[in-house]
Amino acid sequence: MISLKDPPPALDDRAALVGPYLSGKTSLMESILHAAGAITRKGTIKDGNTVGDSSAEARARSMSTEVSVAECDYLGDHWTFLDCPGSIELSQDAKAACMVADVAIVVCEPQPERALTIAPLLHFLDEHAIPHMLFINKMDMTEMRVRDVLQAYQALSERPLVLRQVPIREGESVTGYLDLISERAYR
User: Which of 41, 88, 95, 102 yields a CA-CA distance of 20 to 30 A from 170?
Assistant: First the structure.
């Protein structure tokens, strides 16, 4: 029983990781959990040992077949992550997860020609006024300029997109990033 003198119970912040098949949603969740200290080592899709995709069907198919849930604490806040399947035939599961999330993190690839794959999702998020951000994954595997990638995604978004971080490249490698809000570079 909760008395009126007790503070209300804290609610989790819920983030839905959504995006096309093979964009890296499950790997991103694994990295977030590891960075937050919730897991001691990152699993991989290839090895079938990720926190997400733990069902036998997901591991047999090497893809998300249902929404996976994981929790962690980060900077004093409790987060619940909903790792959603990216396959088109399971898109309703991703939409349902977005409806209960506080924010949707749209994981996408840095190829402008693949931008159309997230158009229906961006439209859904805008139509339902669901706060969202784009996480452009795999920037270390491309020579594509951030400006060109952002321009391709901006053409699909009803809202203006604003860069937060830009990768720092040395030759063919990404060695860090520049945070445009704090005006700091990290290696």
Answer: 41
The DSSP code sequence of 114-145 is: GGGGGHHHHHHHHHTT--EEEEE--GGG----
**5 exposure class (CB count in 10 Å sphere: 0-12, 13-18, 19+):** exposed
Window from 57-66, 83-92, 111-120, 153-162 with minimum mean pLDDT: 57-66
SS3 category, 157:
coil
Domain residue ranges in the chain: 13-186
* Total-model pTM: 0.85
Burial class (CB in 10 A: 0-12, 13-18, 19+), 88: exposed
- State the burial class of residue 15 (Cβ atoms within 10 Å of its Cβ: 0-12, 13-18, 19+): buried
Query: Does residue 33 have a pLDDT over 90?
Result: yes
Instruction: Starting at the earlier edge strand, list the strands of the sheet with 173-179.
Output: 165-170, 173-179, 184-186
CA 169 to mean position of chain CA atoms: 22
Yes or no: say if 146 and 166 are a contact pair by the CB < 8 Å rule: yes
Local structure of residue 187 (DSSP, 8 states): -
- Going from the C-alpha of 84 to that of each of 6, 8, 23, 44, 47, the distances in angstroms are 35, 30, 11, 16, 19
